[in-house]
Amino acid sequence: MDSIPLHKFLVEAGVGARRQAVAAVKLGRITVNGKAAASYTMPVYPEFDEITCDGKLLKSHHQAKIVLMLNKPAGLLSTTSDDRGRRTVLDILPPEYRGLGIYPVGRLDQDTTGLLLLTNDGNLTYRLTHPKFELGKEYLVHVDGTLSPREKEEMEKGLLLDDGLTSPAAVSEIGYDPPFNYSIVIHEGRTRQVRRMFAYLGHLVRDLKRVRIGNLKLGNLKEGEFRKLLPQEIGNLLKSHGE
Residue 19 in 3-state DSSP? Predict the structure, then answer.
């Protein structure tokens, strides 16, 4: 069997997304054959090496790739666990999905609803979250007031937030899904980005719902429900760069 980078194995074993896996190595939580992991890129052999996280033996789930689409309700955290005991998106999945190393792809903040993908596929996660692939994410927004033409133009050109200039967004006024009054498409995944963009212009976001990632739409999936993605849907999603 060929070796794979440690961080890839950790993702497949359910430690979390790549960022969480790298952090676990840097914090000294990972051992390989009884020794602290030297680097998150070090090669490991999943069939032969004994790899632990916080003393717990890890097993790779790379043979059972799962991709779920969830309509996330408000109040749940987009993470695998919480040290304060708050409910996460994994808590609403049936028991048979909880031992397969599944984690959220990206995040929706606690009060945001809508389309969230869950998987144990590290390569897919990379393809869906890395900025270079420019995968568009569409949100419906219920915001106080009305954007002026100048404000709309500012959002479409980019706003200088405290963590840098945002990429151009596509903003349009809608009336087909009350109480939402705007649609916005962004190609980034900064923390609370949509809320901060509207706040920058003096508009409070009352409700926020993600309805599309690339060419994958939430559709009629009810809040709190989930379904498996079909292989064709996954393939189409990976082809939808820039959408």
Answer: helix
Range of the domain at 170: 136-213
How many CB atoms are located within 10 Å of the residue 173 CB?
A: 10
Residues 216-241 pLDDT 10s:
999 999 999 999 998 889 888 888 86
One-letter identity of residue 240: S
* 243 is a domain residue: no
User: Which residues form the catalytic set?
Assistant: 109
Residues 197 and 160 occupy one common structural domain:
yes
Helix, strand or coil for residue 18?
helix
Q: 12: part of which helix (H) or strand (E)?
A: helix 6-12
For residue 79, the domain's CATH number is: 3.30.70.580
What is the reported pTM? 0.76
Among 103-107, 195-199, 208-212, where is mean pLDDT lowest?
103-107
Does residue 106 fall inside a structural domain?
yes
- Enter the tokens of residue 61: 């789930």
Whole-angstrom CA distances from 154 to 31, 118, 171, 181 are 49, 33, 10, 18
159 and 110 share a domain?
Answer: no
Question: CA-CA distance, 4 to 47, in Å (whole number)?
Answer: 11
